Amino acid sequence: MTDQRTDAPPGPHPGPFVPTTHPRPAGAPRPASSRPPDVDAIVDCAVYVQGRREPPVDPGEALAAAVERGGFVWLGLFEPTEAELGAIAEHYGLHPLAVEDAVYAHQRPKLERYDEDLFMVLKTARYVEHEQLTATSEVVDTGEVMVFVGPHHVITVRHGDHNDLTELRQRLEEQRDLLCLGPAAVLYAVSDLVVDSFVDVAEQVQDDVDELEASVFSPQRTDDIGRLYQLKRELMSLRRAVAPLEVPLAKLAERQIEGVPEPMRSYFRDVLDHAIRVRDQVGSLDELLSSILQASLARTSMADNEDMRKISAWAGIIAVPTAIAGIYGMNFEFMPELQWRWGYPLVWLVIAVTCGLLYRGFKRNGWL
Fold first, then answer.
1. What integer is the mean pLDDT of 138-143?
2. pLDDT above 60: residue 208
3. Under DSSP, is residue 242 helix (H, G, I), strand (E, B) or coil?
4. Residue 50, Cα to own-chain centre: how many angstroms?
5. End-to-end CA distance of the chain
6. What is the structure's pLDDT at 19?
7. What is the pLDDT of residues 3-28, one digit of tens each?
8. Sign of the dihedral through C-alpha 213, 243, 78, 71
9. Which is more confidently placed, 41 or 246?
10. In angstroms, what CA-CA distances link 254 with 215, 245, 260, 264, 280?
């Protein structure tokens, strides 16, 4: 786990938030926010004490109330702007580098420590329903969830229209024993939700793979190379979300980390087991798609060869009457059998017998 230390004194108010000026990695620009302009970035804000949700409190006073009552505040954000998250970062003492990652997104799954806070990035995934898989179908849509975990706060920042955390919060509030373990319980719940969504997406992608496999090996002649390549590209997006998550979860499950109680490690170990299983499943699907793609290419090549053999066989058969007609069409005066009465029927007989023998031979060898 990367340990980023700063010279700022510990506490919830380290000073004004100053956006960093570190160059962003090259790549596609961040897509436009899907949040309507009249919707607040704060989805929900609640203080939890001894596993129970306290009466509503103003977001600006939630942290002080949580510290005073010995609980923690869970602040849920949806695609905040730099100014919105900057104001929250100043109040909660969030590190500028982590805030920058949370605003701009497009991060790999990771776990980092900044002073007393943990910062975790998780990729989310959603299966895009489609009537028929085409060479341009979108199959896997990805987003991100960032989680800031401190002694008295947990802040979730969500990017993307899927993996809404509202239902998760409601379910978690029914598990008082789990919430009593503190902010790390929210980190576990979010991680578990993300990994479970990976499992669902992988199972639905499996159905697409099965459909393509049946199409490739069907008796009918099909061209599935474009669809196979597109599905392989979409599966790569899911693989990028799943594979890097194993390392952060392993740290949470196997190491003693400040801010993560010992009982929580068994919970993270369970999430890690699910993540490894879905990683293996995605890897198997990718290998299967590669095999199906190779089989499709081989079938296409075999079909082309079969067409060429048929064309060659018919060309060989047609060559016989063409050659005979060409020879006797040269109009020389002294040619054998020109004056023979049975010459014309004999030529047709020779042509018919020769073409019949050629057809029989090509048919026996599978060329026709």
1. 90
2. yes
3. helix
4. 38
5. 66
6. 45
7. 443 333 334 444 444 444 344 444 33
8. positive
9. 246
10. 45, 14, 11, 11, 20
Asked if pLDDT for residue 227 goes beyond 60, the answer is yes
> Where in the chain does DSSP place strands (E)?
2-4, 42-49, 52-53, 72-78, 110-114, 117-127, 140-149, 153-159
> What φ, ψ does residue 154 adopt, rounded to 5°?
-140, 125
CA dihedral in degrees (323, 329, 332, 337; nearest 10)? 70
Q: pTM for this structure?
A: 0.75
Identify whether the C-beta of residue 368 lies closer than 8 Å to the C-beta of residue 310: yes
Half-sphere exposure of 226 (CA within 13 A, CB side): 7
Structure tokens at 320: 């016989």
CA 189-192-196 angle, to 5 degrees, is: 140
Cα torsion at 184, 189, 193, 199 (round to 10°)?
80
The residue whose two tokens read 């602040």 is: 75
C-alpha span between 311 and 332 (Å, rounded): 33
Say what the pLDDT of residue 326 is: 76
